Amino acid sequence: MKNKRKRNRSGFFLAAIAVILLVAYLTNPGEELHKEKLKIKLTDVLEEAMLERQDNLIIFGAWEMAGGKMVEAFTENYVSVDNYFIFSLTRLHWDGDSYIVGVGGFRQVYITKRLNNELAEMIIDNIENMVIDSLPGFLK
């Protein structure tokens, strides 16, 4: 009787794991959700960092006018999503390195705290260069 009960428990345990894996597979978020969550987080981090740079009127003004477009372009050029079927990872490719900045599962994407000020400063420097490169010659 004990042996039968033990077999029932292990069968139930295996069935529960199979159901969890199936649900994880079916609810793994797509690339669009990863990028949308990262855009929101990037915008928040960059807005905070830009407030510290208010003295640079050209860069601050460009951020105020086109910050959303800059974040959009940055996300499209430097972000990828790795799909592992039951979960997925948001990767930021920067300066020859790849940083995991988010994890997705069960229809949710969690952006890590790794997207910190140091990484934000590198991103802002890149945005500054994009702005400066797009200015007419007499404004540079």
How does this structure look, described?
With 140 residues, this protein is of the alpha+beta class. The protein has one domain (28-139). 61% of the residues lie in helices and 18% in strands. It has helices spanning 2-26, 31-51, 57-78, 117-134; strands at 79-83, 88-94, 97-105, 108-111. The protein has a four-stranded antiparallel β-sheet with strand order 1-2-3-4. A hairpin with a 2-residue loop joins β3 (97-105) and β4 (108-111). α2 packs antiparallel against α3 (57-78) and α2 (31-51) crosses α4. The longest helix is centred in the first third of the chain and has 25 residues, at 2-26. The chain is elongated, with a radius of gyration of 22 Å.
Give the count of helical stretches.
Answer: 4
Distance between the termini: 84 Å
Q: What is the number of beta strands?
A: 4
Helix content: 55-70%
Mind describing the biggest β-sheet? 4 strands, antiparallel
| Domain module count | 1
How would the global form be characterised? elongated
Order of strands across the widest beta sheet? Answer: 1-2-3-4
Q: In sequence order, what are the helices and strands, one letter per element?
A: HHHEEEEH
Low-confidence stretches: none
Strand content: 15-25%
Rg (CA only): 22 Å
